[in-house]
Amino acid sequence: MCGIIGYTGTKQAVPVLISGLSALEYRGYDSAGISVYEEGIITIKTEGRLKNLTNRIKAGRKIKGHTGIGHTRWATHGEPSERNAHPHLSSRLSLVHNGIIENYQELEQMLSSEGYRFRSETDTEAAAHLIDYFYKQSKDPVAALHAAARAIRGSFAFAVMFKGDRENLYAVRSGSPLICADTPNGSYLASDIPAILPFAKEYYQLPENVVAVLSPKGINFFTADGAEIIPEKSQITWSVEAAKKCGYNHFMLKEINEQAEALRNTVLPRLRDGVPYFDCDILDRNIEEIGEIKIIGCGTAMHAGLVGKNVIERFARIPVSVEIASEFRYGNPILRKDTLVILISQSGETADTIAALELAKSAGAKTLAIVNVLGSTISRLADYVIYTWAGPEISVASTKAYTVQCAVLYQIAFKLALVRHQISEGQCRDLCERQANSLPAAIDAALKMSGRIKRLSEKIAEYENLFFIGRGIDAEICKEGSLKLKEISYIHSESYPAGELKHGTISLIDANVPVIAVITVSQVLDKTISNVREVKSRGATVFSVCTKAAAEAVEPMSDYTLVLPETDEIFAPVVAIIALQILAYYTAVARNCDVDKPRNLAKSVTVE
Ligand code: M6R
After folding, report:
1. Residue 243 burial by CB count (10 A; 0-12/13-18/19+): exposed, middle or buried?
2. 109 Cβ neighbours under 8 A, 6+ residues apart
């Protein structure tokens, strides 16, 4: 949450900072600000979207300076306002912060008694004054940042510029991500890769509690005991184009349309002799050691886990449980020696998922991360990592990341099933071949149905409450479809296993509460049809999203039927989710919602 950018070098800082902030706006968008070193440190902050800041900058005199920091905020402490926006200033410095300082009240008390005055309602201001306090004593920025890092409880990524130090930026982090890049034109720091995509080809992940000193000539890294280290560099594999809208009205629509390619990119490199090969010990050489699986994630990533549970249990007959990371971390999980814990995260930086991973590791379980961002915290902490190749996902509502997470879980299911002799090598090859070829074709065919789905969306947009129903794997797809719709259109929706409605919830159904029924599982077709009949007879308008095989049976009681492109039944739910994503997208558009930046949200949730 919140975006940080910093630059020092030969270029003018303001355009670099604005470019970085616009690439990061998806991380938070309730206020923004910059500090630039001119004669002294100039700071400009505004409430609201980044355009308010850029308008203010344009309206003023030109700021000339080659060193600066910028921030786009997702408020945790203090309402979104200019006063609470970053950078925060102290006597000798300007600072931007991501994360949450848990002991800020304690620090505020101590610093107030030292004469510091607080002007905002944020936890961040305590950090600004604390670093200033240590700097006043040591006159050493590196020592001051280390001292502050020791005194602070919580998560933080700080970028700091000191008065009288025109060329250098300082950064330290713990629990919140921060990357740095040195280039011939200067040095950059950012909370996330898209901010530096136009400027750098490789980057350092700043290690925890290491202070980075960025100068126009390069970056130095110092540990708390004063040693200088050189962290490992990672290549940036994403193109600049990948982080642009490329003619689409919204990133979400662009990302929905990228799914067939993302799926191929993720699946094809993991086929060897036609069967899955992950280049990962636990799945290739020691796979027999796995006796049970726990899948952990948040939001959409957790929903992908539910699809994973369904296919792994079905094909490999291994027990799988799926847990919400924020519950798992404070639960009392039972982890066995043969438990494989799979952590799923697009960003690789979700605080709750990181905590769950740490808990699983400390309990001795083997951990495998399925992550989209190279070098992210989760990818580095887990024992094993499988990357999804979705490219950057900018829209807050996750779409292509979900599809490729599901794709990897299908591959894991096929591999486990093969090793456990649940399917033959021929069957495994056949499944993989269809996943890599027929499924992307069906996804593309679903995308071509956008016009029809848009017309259905215009009807859905009129309601304020609705239900999604489905059975088996369709029930899991419904959860994701419902989340997508709620997240961006603000229509309240609930997702229910179709057979469960009559145990209470059906009392909510009437003519004002439509039902979206997802029907792809032939085994329970008749049962789901009966459930559709039940809601229809209570007055609901029914929208069916179904396979051709189900269409004939459901059409008589369905007001609107969307027949999905043909594909193998086991992949049909993946095609169904594409339709539900498009449905959510156009519903949000019809309701004039800000699709890529839904209210109250931010892309990666790096705080608890
Ligand atoms: O980066 P992660 O995959 O760990 O993020 C997890 C969730 O915060 C995320 O999937 C969220 O639910 C999406 N905004 C949903 O569209």
Report:
1. buried
2. none
Count: domains in the chain: 3
| 422/164 Cα distance (integer angstroms) | 69
The CATH number assigned to the domain holding 175 equals 3.60.20.10
Q: Using most ligand atoms within 8 A of CB, pick from 350, 371, 408, 489 the residue to mutate for ligand 1.
A: 350
Alpha-carbon torsion (63, 65, 69, 70), positive or negative:
positive
Q: Which atom of ligand 1 is nearest to the CA of 378?
A: 4
CATH label of the domain that carries residue 552: 3.40.50.10490
Return the HEC string of 227-240: CEECCCEEECCCCC
Express each pLDDT in 163-217 by its tens digit.
Answer: 999 999 999 999 888 999 999 999 999 998 989 999 999 999 999 999 999 999 9
Could you tell me the residue range of the domain that residue 550 belongs to? 449-590
Q: Which atom of ligand 1 lies at the shortest distance from residue 405's CA?
A: 3
How far does residue 466's CA lie from ligand 1's centre (Å)? 22
pLDDT in tens, 359-373: 999 999 999 999 998
Locate the ligand 1 atom nearest the alpha carbon of residue 300 and give its number. Answer: 10
Ordered alpha helix ranges (H), 47-161: 50-59, 104-113, 124-138, 141-151
136 is catalytic: no
Residues whose beta carbon lies within 6 Å of some atom of ligand 1: 298-301, 345-347, 350, 353, 396-398, 483, 487, 604-605
Q: Do 290 and 203 reside in the same domain of the chain? A: no
Residue 2 annotated in active site: yes
Q: Record the tokens describing residue 553, joined without a space.
A: 């049976």
Residue 34, classed as helix, strand or coil, is strand
Nearest CA to ligand 1 atom 10: 300
Helix axes 124-138, 141-151, angle to 10 degrees: 130
- What is the C-alpha separation between 406 and 386, in angstroms, rounded? 12
Centroid of ligand 1 to alpha carbon of 392 (angstroms): 13
Tokens representing residue 138 in the block: 């040591």
CB distance 11 to 186 below 8 Å = yes
Determine which residue's CA is closest to atom 11 belonging to ligand 1. 299
94 falls in which pLDDT band (50, 70, 90)? very high
